[in-house]
Amino acid sequence: MLRIEAEDPGRVLVGLEFRLKGRDRLSEKVAEAVEERGHSVSEAFGLVKDAIRYTFCYPEDGYSEGVLADCERLEAEGFGPFDRKNSWDEERFCGAPG
Question: Read out DSSP for 55-95?
Answer without folding.
Answer: EEE--GGGHHHHHHHHHHHHHHTT---------TTSSS-TT
